[in-house]
């Protein structure tokens, strides 16, 4: 046991990312949890149920018949003023889809973890980001974590952000299904959870209260609907600044630095490789290997997906000649099929200039993306040059697809 | 007034304000009570899902000479023209009249 730098004394524990979520949810002292089991998320709520049964966490666990009901139940509880939590994956997230918009439209500070997983059909329980990318326009703030440590810290931060009166939007904390949800890693958690509660004090907001009745989610016609949706645009914009403030709070408390865009060996790089989630470690390893071969290459990780950190990205990549974006989701029929690659192109277009963007899709349906895969994608780009940009998207590792 | 002036999410923070909005203006058929045939059984008053049928303190004398101490009245500002009153009336004393002029 050893304390790391930061205000609070911490202990080193061994957890997978599902349990890291559960520990954080316990430490912020949620009131109501509703979730429906789905692989690979189930471990989160199993652990929480265990914590409630043992008296470690004083919360209400609502058993529901579907994810549609799970999110609906936490919407009700949140509207009544409770601090709430839910978790899901894949088809479960898709079943929630219409209700996700209601949660954000009602401006409820709900926090949900998503252990990302491929979508049916064919049925596949393994990791990719198709589920998460499908809900990108639902006005949920979305973090993508890369380690169990970051999962713990980000769930705590998610409550700070969601409940901030300048934001009042729901937050997703996503991480790789199986690669992270079921893989144990060492991490530090505060010894005393009351310290975590002090980081996330209860704040006043308008809630359902018979003493002071309000109506939430009422009908709004063409005369005012646009203004109310514009409030969400502004809240999402403001969320960026609020997140940066709480990144500092997390640093002061735990001694760990989080930024919307993280980089590795990028300072003198000519080509950058950007990805998100648990494969960032493999990418860093691949960068080391490519540097041994003499390539000036660096790694970039996207931590904050919504709101998209346009300026942070631009600052990091503007000097590069090319930027390879490795997505683990397919936007079928899109101009560029990698959802993050498409977003990166939009961000660079907005700022003007910047590197050529090469979009790779890899790791679909839980296929491993190793150091060698990143090296292979980089070398394919070197071989193709400008043709890699013009291709739109390169599908890495598909039998029968060859480039060059 | 701008987007800034609205409560978050278009929440209605002032209770009981539905009186400020006349919700009967999308009605297609308007129920009209024949005070002469009506026996004041109050079935329409019980069935109305919007509570827009009122009992008013106004005596009425029918063509056959019967005197009622009260009349029934429909608040057309809020009646949505669902027709339940006309359907339930055992005397068929409520007629649905098309609103289109």
Quick recap of the structure?
The model of chain A has no long low-confidence stretch (mean pLDDT 97). The N and C termini of chain A lie far apart (52 Å).
- The quaternary structure here is heterodimer
Helix content of chain B: under 10%
- Overall shape of chain B: it is elongated
Specify the structural class of chain B: mainly beta
Radius of gyration of chain B: 18 Å
Largest β sheet strand count, sense and barrel closure of chain B: 2 strands, antiparallel
Report on this model:
The complex is a heterodimer of chains A (404) and B (101). Chain A is of the alpha/beta class and 404 residues long. Chain A is 40% helix and 18% strand. Chain A has helices at residues 17-27, 43-53, 67-79, 90-95, 97-105, 130-134, 148-163, 193-199, 225-254, 280-292, 310-317, 339-351, 371-384, 386-390; strands at 10-15, 32-35, 60-63, 84-88, 111-116, 141-144, 171-176, 185-190, 261-264, 271-275, 297-302, 304-306, 322-327, 356-361, 394-395. A 7-stranded mixed sheet of chain A has the order 3-2-4-5-7-6-12, sandwiched between helices. In chain A, helix 12 (339-351) links the parallel strand 13 and strand 14. The longest helix of chain A has 30 residues, at 225-254. Chain B has 101 residues and is mainly β. Chain B has a single domain, classed as 2-Layer Sandwich (Alpha-Beta Plaits). Chain B has helices spanning 43-47, 84-88; strands spanning 29-33, 53-56, 60-61, 67-68, 71-74, 94-98. Chain B has a two-stranded antiparallel sheet with strand order 1-6. In chain B, a hairpin with a 5-residue loop joins strand 3 (60-61) and strand 4. Chain B is elongated, with a radius of gyration of 18 Å. Chain B starts with 28 loop residues before the first strand and ends with a strand. The interface between A and B is medium-sized, with 20 and 11 residues.
């Amino acid at each position: 046991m050893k304390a790391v730098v930061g205000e609070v004394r911490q202990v080193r524990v061994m957890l997978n990312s599902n349990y890291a979520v559960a520990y954080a949810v316990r430490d912020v002292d949620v009131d109501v949890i509703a979730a429906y089991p789905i692989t690979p998320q189930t471990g989160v709520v199993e652990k929480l149920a265990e914590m409630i049964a043992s008296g470690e966490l004083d919360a209400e666990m609502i058993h529901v018949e579907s994810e549609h009901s799970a999110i609906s139940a936490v919407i009700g509880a949140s509207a009544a003023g409770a601090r709430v939590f839910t978790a899901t994956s894949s088809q479960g997230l898709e079943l929630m889809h219409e209700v996700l918009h209601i949660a954000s439209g009602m401006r409820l500070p709900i926090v949900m973890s998503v252990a990302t997983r491929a979508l049916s059909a064919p049925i596949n329980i393994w990791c990719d980001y198709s589920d998460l990318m499908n809900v990108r326009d639902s006005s949920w703030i979305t973090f993508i974590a890369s380690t169990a440590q970051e999962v713990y810290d980000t769930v705590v931060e998610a409550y700070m952000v969601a409940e901030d009166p300048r934001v009042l939007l729901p937050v997703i904390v996503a991480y790789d299904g199986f690669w992270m949800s079921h893989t144990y890693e060492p991490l530090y958690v505060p010894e005393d959870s009351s310290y975590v509660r002090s980081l996330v004090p209860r704040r006043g907001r308008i809630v359902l209260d018979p003493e002071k009745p309000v109506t939430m989610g009422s009908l709004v016609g063409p005369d005012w609907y646009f203004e109310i949706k514009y409030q969400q645009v502004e809240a999402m914009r403001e969320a960026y600044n609020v997140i940066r403030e709480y990144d500092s709070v997390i640093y002061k408390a735990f001694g760990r630095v989080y930024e919307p865009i993280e980089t590795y060996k990028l300072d003198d790089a000519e080509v950058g490789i950007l990805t998100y989630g648990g494969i960032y470690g493999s990418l860093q390893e691949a960068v080391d290997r490519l540097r041994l071969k003499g390539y000036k290459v660096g790694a970039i990780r996207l931590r904050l997906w919504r709101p998209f950190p346009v300026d942070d990205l631009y600052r990091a990549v503007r000097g590069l000649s090319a930027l390879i974006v490795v997505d683990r989701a397919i936007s079928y029929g899109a101009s560029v099929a990698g959802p993050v690659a498409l977003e990166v192109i939009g961000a660079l277009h907005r700022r003007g200039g910047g590197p050529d963007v090469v979009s790779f899709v890899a790791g679909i349906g839980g296929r491993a993306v190793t150091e060698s895969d990143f090296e292979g994608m980089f070398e394919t780009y070197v071989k193709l040059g400008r043709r890699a940009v013009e291709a739109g998207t390169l599908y890495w590792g598909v039998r029968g697809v060859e480039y060059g | 007034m701008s987007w800034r002036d609205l409560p978050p999410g278009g929440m209605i923070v002032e209770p009981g304000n539905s009186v400020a909005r006349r919700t009967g203006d999308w009605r297609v058929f308007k129920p009209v009570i024949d005070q002469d045939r009506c026996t004041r059984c109050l079935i329409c008053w019980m069935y109305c899902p919007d509570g827009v049928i009122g009992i008013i303190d106004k005596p009425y004398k029918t063509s056959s000479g019967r005197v009622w101490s009260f009349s029934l009245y429909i608040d057309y500002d809020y009646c949505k023209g669902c027709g339940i009153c006309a359907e339930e009336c055992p005397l068929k004393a409520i007629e649905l009249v098309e609103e289109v002029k």
